[in-house]
């Protein structure tokens, strides 16, 4: 009986993962008008969506399998649930760091949701996300400039420090000097953010809602 239920759980997770992977990737790639960007998205978006699906499936299955048959309110269930919360929070943390961008923002937000999500998630995200943000290389910064302005920073500014003075989840800041000598701070969005943000937003929301529909007790919407 338990084995059949767990098999049904695995099947539902596989179907959900397939839907997320194929639907999200196709929609995002189809909206790109630039051939070069579309080619990159053919690799980047499916990979990110695959990570999302695998992580969500792993977390949901861990809750279902680990808590199976443990009575509500029992000491054993509380102990096991704490361990599952820790494992799942670390999996989510790894996903946020690997995908970057809006996922870092999501992790930072979870780190502020004390009393709304399990403390294990809050503590792990707070300890790891609030002071650790991705840094785009100078080559990636140049790619953003060329895409948005048609020129590299050295063509636009008299001076441009390739090392950022600060970095956040969505962008980083460089010090530069205008042609007239005025010093300015230049905020540069992390590479690929424009291309993947819409898909990331949709997929994160879809993952949370899908997991809740599959497992009503998994409700972090």
* Helix-strand topology string: HHHHHHHEEEEH
Main beta sheet, described? 4 strands, antiparallel
Q: Report how far apart the termini are.
A: 30 Å
Overall 3D shape: elongated
Total count of strands: 4
* Alpha-beta content class: alpha+beta
Q: On the 0-100 scale, what is the average pLDDT?
A: 78
Helix proportion range:
55-70%
Can you give me a brief rundown of this structure?
The chain has helices spanning 2-30, 35-66, 75-99, 102-110, 119-129, 138-149, 153-156, 193-214; strands at 159-160, 166-167, 171-177, 183-189. The protein has 221 residues and is α+β, with helices and mostly antiparallel strands.
Provide structural commentary:
The chain has 221 residues and is α+β, with helices and mostly antiparallel strands. It has two domains: 2-132 and 193-214, no CATH class; 138-189, no CATH class. The protein is 65% helix and 8% strand. Strands 1, 2, 3 and 4 form a four-stranded antiparallel β-sheet that branches. α1 (2-30) runs antiparallel to α2 (35-66), α1 runs antiparallel to α8 (193-214) and α2 packs parallel to α8. The two termini are 30 Å apart.
């Amino acid at each position: 009986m338990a084995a059949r239920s767990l098999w049904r759980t695995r099947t539902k997770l596989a179907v959900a993962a397939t839907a997320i992977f194929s639907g999200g990737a196709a929609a995002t790639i189809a909206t790109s008008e630039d051939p070069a960007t579309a080619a990159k998205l053919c690799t980047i978006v499916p990979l990110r969506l695959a990570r999302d699906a695998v992580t969500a499936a792993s977390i949901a299955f861990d809750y279902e399998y680990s808590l199976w048959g443990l009575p509500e309110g029992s000491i054993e269930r509380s102990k096991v649930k704490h361990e599952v919360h820790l494992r799942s929070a670390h999996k989510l943390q790894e996903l946020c760091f690997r995908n970057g961008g809006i996922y870092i923002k999501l992790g930072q937000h979870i780190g502020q949701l004390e009393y709304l999500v399990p403390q294990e998630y809050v503590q792990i995200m707070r300890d790891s996300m609030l002071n650790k943000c991705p840094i785009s290389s100078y080559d990636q910064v140049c790619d953003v400039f060329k895409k948005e302005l048609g020129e590299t920073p050295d063509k636009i500014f008299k001076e441009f420090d390739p090392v950022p003075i600060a970095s956040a989840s969505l962008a980083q800041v460089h010090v530069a000097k205008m042609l007239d000598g005025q010093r300015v701070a230049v905020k540069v969005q992390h590479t690929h953010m424009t291309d993947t943000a819409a898909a990331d937003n949709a997929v994160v929301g879809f993952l949370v809602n899908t997991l809740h529909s599959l497992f009503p007790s998994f409700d972090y919407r």
